Amino acid sequence: MKQNKITESLTVVKEIQKNPGEQSQVILPREMLKHNYNELEQHYFIHDLQNLTSGFPENENIYILGHEVTEDFPRHNHDFFEMSYVCQGEILNVIDDVELYMSPGDMILLNQYALQEIRCINPKALLINICIKEELFSRTLKEFVMDNNPISEFLRHDNRGKQKYMFFSTGYSREIPVFMNNMVEEYTQAGFHQTFSLEAWLLLLFDSLVKSGRYSYSGIDKNALKIIQYIQEHCIHESMERMASELGYNANYLTGYIKKHTGRNCREIMKEARLKEALRLLADTALSVYEVSEACGYASPSHFFRIFKETYQMSPKEYQRQIHKNTMQ
To answer: What keywords sit in the KW lines (predicted)?
Structure first.
């Protein structure tokens, strides 16, 4: 989900308004923080979002805003749950002094007790923040919150004092960007008002995250990021066992480590890296599908065909023809 006409219509936290004609309202970080410093706790406490801009109506339980992370944002917490989704770029999210690296498609759900600091590592980074007041859970989402699933337990504070955030590595997902786009579109078209449709999209988002089962209470720290990048770069020509050995682990431990920090397993990360390379190679029509299969580390072309079609709902050959057709237009 890249910044486009939909996200440009959001209220955005950023330092300057680049284009005089752009429609979005801007909240300057210093204005957001000015009256929210907690002298006793020595961090900022962000609350009453409707007072930050005339664009936000009062008495709403959901607020959505963009955040262009062009500079560091200091240590703070909120009086609401916050779900942050990385649309583009990368950020370093520091939660209770734990450094988490987030890439496009990653998402984190924070409760009111989490102390957060955002560090700029890519000036083109863009976040979408869904701010949810606890009152919402007594309405449309009441039954979901009372359900027996990890997100519901988190929202009920069943893990209060233990888990202050949930990390979701969703860059692989085809559903999540659709849900996020639909939520932003519904919110802006309704004039920044909470609607039943918006609540329904939020429920679908939660449901999709629950069904995926891919969540973590740890997140991607510096070491996990290094390991993931190594796997992505070497998995085409090296086995899981070889990569684990090169990294100084056994394969079972490495699989458990990745699962702990991402909610996913190494095989999924390897599959995505190979398919990403396959898409790149298929765009070169000089290579046959069989050559692409071999170049991406698949021992069996039929296995490559099956995985590709399951993921993209078309065969490698159909994708290749589509790319060729688009370049000819």
So the answer is: DNA-binding, Transcription, Transcription regulation
What is the Cα–Cα distance from 255 to 127, expressed in whole angstroms? 29
- Which CATH number characterizes residue 268's domain? 1.10.10.60
pLDDT of residue 15: 75
Burial class (CB in 10 A: 0-12, 13-18, 19+), 189: middle
CA nearest neighbour of 125 among 182, 181, 75, 85: 85
Q: What is the DSSP letter of 175?
A: S
Inside any domain, residue 55: yes
Measure Cα distances from 311 to 2, 84, 224, 250 in Å: 21, 26, 25, 29
Dihedral angle at the C-alpha atoms of 141, 142, 144, 147, nearest 10 degrees?
A: 170
pLDDT more than 70, % of the chain: 90
Indicate the Cα dihedral angle 196, 197, 203, 204, nearest 10°.
160
Domain boundary among 194, 212, 230: 212
Q: How many domains does the chain have?
A: 2
Report field, pTM of the whole predicted structure over 0.90: no
Domain that holds residue 190: 5-212
